[in-house]
Each structure stands twice: as C-alpha cells, then as structure tokens.
C-alpha cells in the first residue's frame, strides 16, 4: 500500500513504513509544508507501524532550510519568525521521542537543517556519497531546528562550533568516526540496508523499542541518582513481553544443545 502527499511520499511494507522526501530539484530542502507533513505523520503514526525508514529522492538526503522560502516569507516580527523554529522543534521531537524507531538513509548533502533532521533519527545509514556540513555561519544565520541541542550530543559542542565557524565538510567515513552516522555502505545500497535493519528492529518488543528511544536520551541528560531512578521506572514498563521472550530465548539455546 502506498499513498502520496505533495512533498512526502509514504509507502508501507508490512509493519515498516518508508517516508521519501520528494523535492529532488531543491535537494530535498525543508520548507514549511514538508515540516507540517512530518508532523502529521509522526503525531499519529499508523498503529501497525514498527519502524520507519526515511530517505530523500534523488542524489541528496536534505540540503537544509529552503532559503528561498525563508527570504520570501521573512518579516520583522520576531514572534512570527519563531514559528518556523517551533514547528521544526515539534517535528523533530516527534521523530526522536515518538512511538517507533526511525532509520535515515543519508546520501549526498546532509547539510544544515538536513543534519538537524538526521540527528533526530535513531539509526543513520550513510552512503559513501554523503557529506555533512553546517554552513549557517557563512549564510549569516544560526541553526534553528534544534541543531544546537542535538548535534553536540553526537559530536561534542567544540566540534560543532568549529563546523559552524569554518563550514568544513566531513565525508561519510569521517561522519562515521564522529558519530554522525552509524553505518557506511556503498552508493545505491543504503535503502536496502536500512530496510534490513528496520526489519530486525521491528522484531523487538514494541515496548522495548519505545523505552529505548524515549528513555535513554532522557536518562543520559539526567543526574546520576535521577537517572538510576528513571531507569528502574522505564525497565518496569517493558516487563509484559519479557517473560515469554526470555523463555523462548532459553528454549532456543536448549534446542541447539547450548547451555542455558
């Protein structure tokens, strides 16, 4: 089953959903409409969804903010200008702290807001063509899609500062070393790799996946005692499926003649 919106194509493969940003002529840059379509999907994802694969049509994942739209709609009203950032925050929070794991396939430009979007996903598969950059400083602007919160947690604040000051570009292998990507694969193979990964993730207990994507980032931001308390509470959420799955695990080991 598949359905199309103007800028975000949604396709279903069993309990997996594939989201395709469909602005190849704009290098899949993010405009207001595309952000709203992200919100519409992740605010109430299909109940049967167990994992999402996100990628961009064409040669690039996402080249960031649609600068032409920004210039065309910009006002001197500071409050109105904040609406764009708030919409991005909402969209990316729904991705990172939503109900289902999201795997992104990165090719070509992963630039500015595109890197902010990628950093909200839970697993990042980079093709060798991928390159990472934060050119906002050269554009006379600042990150506005939660990048100053998410990206330092991946690579450190100092490195993000240098990226923005110098606008240097990192290739896929360097991105892997820094933590901007989790996997590097050959060009043209990223989507298949991500789908295989999504299928594996989808076999986990849904409550465990929910606990992992929502619990670990928050616990990591907590103090020691608060983190330990939160861990016990999150762990208690995952008990419903545990007994059956653990029993099945040990029965499988016995069937293979392995010690329990």
Mean pLDDT: 91
Total domain count: 2
Shape: globular
Largest sheet: 7 strands, mixed
Multimerization status: single chain
What is the CATH architecture descriptor of the largest domain?
Alpha-Beta Complex
Q: Indicate the proportion of strand residues.
A: 15-25%
Total number of helices? 12
Structural class: alpha/beta
Give the helix proportion (percent range).
Answer: 40-55%
Pattern of helices and strands: EEEHEHHEEHEEHHHEHEHHHH
Number of strands: 10
Give the class-level CATH name of the largest domain: Alpha Beta
Residue stretches low in confidence (pLDDT < 50, at least 5 long) are none
The gyration radius over C-alpha positions equals: 20 Å
**CATH-assigned homologous superfamily of the largest domain:** 2-enoyl-CoA Hydratase, Chain A, domain 1
Strand order of the largest sheet: 1-2-3-4-5-7-10
**CATH-defined fold name of the largest domain:** 2-enoyl-CoA Hydratase, Chain A, domain 1
| Cα distance spanning the termini | 43 Å
């Amino acid at each position: 089953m598949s359905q199309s919106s103007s800028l975000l194509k949604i396709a279903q493969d069993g309990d997996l959903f594939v989201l395709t940003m469909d602005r190849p002529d704009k290098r899949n840059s993010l405009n207001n409409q595309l952000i709203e379509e992200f919100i519409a999907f992740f605010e109430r994802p299909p109940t049967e969804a167990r994992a999402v694969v996100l990628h961009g049509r064409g040669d690039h994942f996402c080249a960031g903010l649609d600068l032409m739209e920004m210039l065309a709609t910009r006002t001197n009203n500071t409050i109105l200008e904040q609406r764009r950032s708030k919409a991005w925050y909402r969209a990316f929070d729904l991705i990172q702290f939503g109900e289902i794991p999201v795997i992104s396939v990165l090719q070509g430009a992963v630039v500015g807001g595109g890197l902010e979007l990628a950093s909200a996903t839970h697993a990042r598969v980079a093709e060798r063509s991928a390159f990472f950059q934060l050119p906002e400083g050269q554009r006379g602007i600042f990150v506005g899609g939660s990048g100053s919160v998410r990206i330092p947690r991946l690579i450190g604040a100092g490195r993000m500062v240098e990226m923005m000051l110098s606008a240097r570009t990192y290739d896929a292998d360097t991105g892997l070393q820094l933590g901007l990507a989790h996997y590097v694969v050959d060009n043209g193979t990223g989507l298949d790799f991500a789908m295989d990964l999504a299928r594996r993730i989808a076999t986990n207990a849904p409550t465990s996946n929910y606990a992992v994507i929502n619990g670990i980032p928050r616990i990591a931001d907590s103090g020691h005692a608060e983190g330990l308390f939160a861990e016990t509470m999150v762990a208690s959420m995952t008990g419903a499926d545990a007994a059956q799955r653990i029993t099945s695990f040990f029965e499988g080991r016995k069937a293979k003649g392995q010690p329990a």
